[in-house]
Write a structure and sequence with these properties.
The chain is of the alpha+beta class. The chain has one domain. The protein is built from 8 helices and 6 strands; from the N terminus they run H-H-H-H-E-E-H-E-E-H-E-E-H-H. It has helices at 6-12, 16-25, 29-90, 94-106, 131-136, 171-178, 211-215, 221-230; strands spanning 112-116, 120-125, 148-149, 162-163, 186-188, 199-203. It has a 4-stranded antiparallel β-sheet with strand order 1-2-6-5, with helices on one face. Strands 3-4 form a two-stranded antiparallel sheet. Helix 3 runs parallel beside helix 6. It is globular and about 70 Å long. 25% of the residues are buried.
Length: 232
Amino acid sequence: MRHFTDEQLEEMGKLTRDLIKEAIDKGDLERAKQLSDRMYREFSAMHDLYLYWVTATLTHIGRNYGDQALYQALKEGCAAWVLPLAERYAAKDTKTKAEMLVAGLRGHLQPLRVEEDDEKFTIYMQPCGSGGRLIINRAYQPPYSFLSIEEAQPMTYGRQDFPVYCAHCPFEALIPIEAGLVPFAVTIPAGDLENEPCRVCLYKNAADIPSEVFEQAGLDRDEFIKKTSSNK
């Protein structure tokens, strides 16, 4: 006994994006809306699958091999995507950088608030679609019981009992700086990670990036800027 016709199976295998376009071309806007919601659910499910997978893996590393191994795993893992992004950002104008950063953060499927002043762009995560939602969903409590890093250190922004997933955020600035590139994003964690939004900042001029961001890499901000400027 078959459950689907050949036509239904064929449609089942199509990209939801393509089905949306087909519905729009046919003028079936209600179906296009339904498919749009379906695509959001599909993306959200896959997003969260990887979110929990990564956090469980980091938890295993930290609990079984310690903070030093966890630091190296985060650094090497983040470098695979942070460095290519930093290189791409370096070639773009400020407006394009801001559009790229916000586009990337929209991939977490949560509302954002974007502000601009003379110094920087600030994106407020309302809430953070990855680390923030893990905290809100009590994923650091049973049954998941993901790791909170006990010792205050650079990958925890100097805080104790820091959520292991969120420990990747400092590397978004640290890795480009160590490679001689200006970081494309500086995350400023909320004081209350469960109830306040974290901020992601894109500074228009490297000289305005807080000096402590460079100090985490063991570098002086002014010396870094002078050196990178002379290399251009």
